[in-house]
Amino acid sequence: MKQMLITLAVGLYLTGCASVNVRVDNLPESTAPPSFEQSYVYWWWGLKGEYSVNVREVCKGNDVYQMQAVNSFSDTVISILTLGIYSKRTARVWCEETT
């Protein structure tokens, strides 16, 4: 029983959260709140549920300077508990502000 709990704890620690971050310049990742954020649900290990974000619509003609796809710790835990049947990922977009 103790070994199983240790294995589970290590597995959860290793899964943690993950993100893919894309910037159009060489500056560090933005810490400002995103202009757009939405979560999307995927089923059956990602086989059902295909989404796209139209950044031109999101930014209403302004330039996009950062995009990010995030898989949080809670998203990973839920995916593990459902054996990959249900998983969630969040898309974030940062638009350049007009002055």
Structure commentary:
It is built from three helices and four strands; from the N terminus they run αββαβαβ. The chain is α+β, with helices and mostly antiparallel strands and 99 residues long. It has a four-stranded antiparallel beta sheet with strand order 1-3-4-2. The longest helix is centred in the N-terminal third of the chain and has 14 residues, at 2-15.
State the total count of DSSP E strands: 4
- Helical percentage: 25-40%
State the separation between the terminal residues, measured CA to CA: 61 Å
Based on Cα principal axes, name the global outline.
elongated
Kindly report the average pLDDT value.
77
Structural class by helix and strand composition: alpha+beta
Reading the helices and strands in chain order gives HEEHEHE
- Poorly predicted regions are none
Number of helices: 3
SSE topology:
Elements: H1 2-15, E1 18-23, E2 36-43, H2 55-59, E3 64-71, H3 73-81, E4 86-95
Antiparallel strand pairs: 1-3, 2-4, 3-4
